[in-house]
Fold each of these.
Amino acid sequence: MAEAQGAFERNLKAGETLFTEGEQGNEMYLIRSGKVEISRSAGGQKKVLATLSEGSFLGEMAIVDDAPRSATAIAASDVSLLILDRAAFKAQLQENPMIEYLITSLVKRLRETNEQVKIMLQKDDVCRIAASLLAMGREKGVPDGSGVLVKGSFTQDSLADQVGVSKAKAGEIFEKLTKSGLVAFQPDGIKIPSVPDLEEFWRFATLKEKFKEM
């Protein structure tokens, strides 16, 4: 890989940021020496997910599916990196369509897992349920009027289990969301009349939880 066209090196001092959650990524990295801390924000707080060391890859998800970075990477020590840009990476993948398909599928699964981790890291039950509904709407929702419909057989109990909220508490939350017109349970799935409104509600709930702890 070190000989691949488009690959080059980069060195970081301890504490320097390699990339930030939410920004676009055009490169992936191989750690040649040193350690990199991987973290993400949940409920306004930093959560460390892993510390990667020599021989580990990072940043590959963003150059496979062009989605924003799913986490923040900061040098935990002086670090030496080998860098491969998107063009060089995809040129190699195209030589074997099956490998390209497998990697793309794996990245999709990792994205879904990362989204679930982000949801579970939130302490507040309202935030977790709202974040889960938002993720479902964005990833699986199909246009339906001014909102989206997440097709499937869903129950409040199954959604409560999915995000680790008690069924009784989840029932109270879903009742409030339904009365507010943010969510509607239908025979063919879950209707989200306005994704922006639900996102605004989630942000409000997240800020409320954050400042409650101060």
Amino acid sequence: MIGGRRQRPDASLFIGSGKADEVGNAVRAERAKLVMFNHELSPSQERNLEERLQCRVLGRTGLILDIFARRARTHEGKLQVELAQLQHLSTRLVRGWLHLERQRGGIGLRGPGETQLEVDRRLIRKRIATLQKRLERVRRRRAQNRRARVRSERATISLVGYTNAGKSTLFNALTGAHVPASSKLFATLDPTLRRLALPGSRSAVIADTVGFIRNLPHDLVAAFRATLEESREADLLLHVVDAADPERTARIEQVHAVLAGIDALQIPRLEVFNKIDLRAGEQPRLERDATGLPARVWGSAQTGLGLDVLRNAIAECMGPPSEEYELQLPPAAGRLRARLFAQGAVCRESIEASGIARVRVRMPHRQLRQLLHEAGLTESATVATLEPPP
């Protein structure tokens, strides 16, 4: 590893010519075939460095994309990675075509005069458009599934956090699933949803999502929009933090930056300080904020420490549980009945000869009172009595 410091990057090589010679000497001494930069390189900088070092040069985004390509398993994940790779490649085609004077013509092409570079760029643009259409269908399907969960009043929880914080291990521990979990970067690319049982016979849907990283490349944010929307549309975010990471404060800030980039910073969050088994003397506990709500849970997904505390904290964050109530609604309350059905709150209904509808609903008490108030009805009114189930 070779470090360096400059006031500003060199426009041609990113590093200075002297540092480039130092890197070149190390490449020859080690017979290296690849040089990686922990920074974003422009297409011209990559090309100039490869010519000078006589080996492949990979910037930060290129490295992340290579890792993503190895981790993708599902059809959706492969589409997202391919889209990000093509968007990254489209500005770097010139590196592979030093013979731009070559021209091609023939069936399906623009005819004589079209260079190989232009052909490749056109084919990549066409493939990018195809991938974007396919991912748009994925996005619509996910949105439809989310609407179904809203109608059934099934709350959604999304696991977020820096890569390798232990999100998949926590996901498996909470749900009993067997999502692959390892100490590798970006071990999870494809979102997985499972049912999460909560105290009080309640349940929610929990999603395991892609890990975040510092300065997440814009192309990746755009390509993984369908996946990241699981976090943006969630009712609660579980921000998993590696408690044993000495840079955890910086990691938390970096995750907040990514959440702000996808408009998810306003969603309620519960911090989960994971891996306390790696810290001597650390005990599972719950910390509350100034208003008394759960703010942070300390535990270990690997050993199971603090999981019961976490489940209780999640249930408290999700608000009061739904209960069953029986309503007597007059014929004029048709709009209220429609809203109850639209929210999936109606368990059963019967219409009396007088036109009064007896409706059994399941929903939180506060939400029901709000609906009755908006409809001009009260709990104490004869036409809309609210009774606990027998």
